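Board notes (copied after class):
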Amino acid sequence: MDDKVTGGQGDRVMGERREMRSETQYDAIIVGARAAGAVMAALMAQENFRVLLVDRVTFPKTTLSCPLTFGNTFDVLKKIGVLEKIEAIGAPKLRLYQTQIGNVRLYGRMLPHAGFDYAYQIRRELYDEVIFNHVAQMPNVETRLGFNVTDLIWENERVVGVRGREGGGGDEIEIRAEAVIGADGIFSTIAEKVNAKKYNVIAGHTCIYFAYYENVKPAADEPTATIYYDADEHFAFVTANSDSDLTVISISLPASQFERVRQNYENVHFEYAQKIPEMGERMRDAKRVTPVYGVSPRDSFYREPFGNGWVLIGDAAYYKDPLPGQGIHDALRSAELATRAFVEYHALGKSERAWDAAFRVYHKTRDDETQPMYELTDFYADLERKRLPQEMDLFRAIAASPKWSNIYVSMFNGVTSVNWFRRFDTVLRILLEWRWRQLRDKLLGRRAIENRATELQSATTSPSRPTATRLQ
């Protein structure tokens, strides 16, 4: 007969009685050992907490992700001592960012965040393995790969550990901890077991296909991340120079195209490259060196990120369309905030009230920090919406100004506040400056136009680095 235990999180069937091996108590068990989980393990270990880091896979192992790591993420990598190892992978530093819509192209250089004015694009199998191997050597961290968590242990309506099996077989093992952290991705087992509620859900706009290629012609004379939007055909190409002299090519297509494209997904990049002459030329001699990885249309969402004895971080807690490449930053930032909450919980006396107070701050801070980019991403990812003339005028105005182009692309590394940039007075200022330059050029004639062209050209090729404080 099954034992049925009723708790605050709903009824839970514990399964048949059986003998289980019970293992040592930890301060935290982190389920999911990729970027978010590994970084949180490192941060907690630095605070002298004893951590067990587990994952059902072993590394190296690819995953459906090809994000950029922006400068606002390097601080935490530096703090845990792994940044030099990431840089040793040898990926090029991306300082130039281009966005093209129709015949208008924007060139921008990100303003430095804590001194970092560049980003990296690194294959996840390399990126995750470097971080995991570093964290696995840290004091206070134990690791267990190939360990599949099958259930949670509940006592007095609180999560107090996990059950799982090595390699998917053998006896079930019971491991206890003060807290269980779910860093196990969008389809999180931990989120499912605690019935974490979703909110602010947005239906998936896009399907995405990406792969890594060699022999792709560069988009500029330096390492570059480039986005090509085709407003008529409703798709977006993202390309970036990656590690090992490879180029990642990702295409976002409307969700309505998913069933058609999946029938011939291996040729999708070459098919759509022909619709953009520059992209077709860049891919003329390209050779694909990885499989084409596909991501079906997925809803964006927030999940309640904590409850009695459990916490969610990374994609397990919050997910949005990958088009702007924010996944790594969001994952590592959530690891920082959750670690800070765990420290505060201990400082406040480790009571139930202390837990609730500390992690309410985590919850609110996460939502406050991510909501502006969440809304902006929804706007960008809706590829089938009609581009209004006013929207294109704003894009032309930004593209015409090196200053505003730099400020615009710096939304993606956290220097420019998304809310500030989208404010009415900011948009009005951009448009008025643009109109004034047009009027000035008309009055002054050809010399002014030539000077303007020289200014734009120097903005894309100058070795000087723009500087600014946070714009908000």
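Comment from the instructor: DSSP finds 15 helices and 23 strands in the chain. The longest strand covers residues 21-31.
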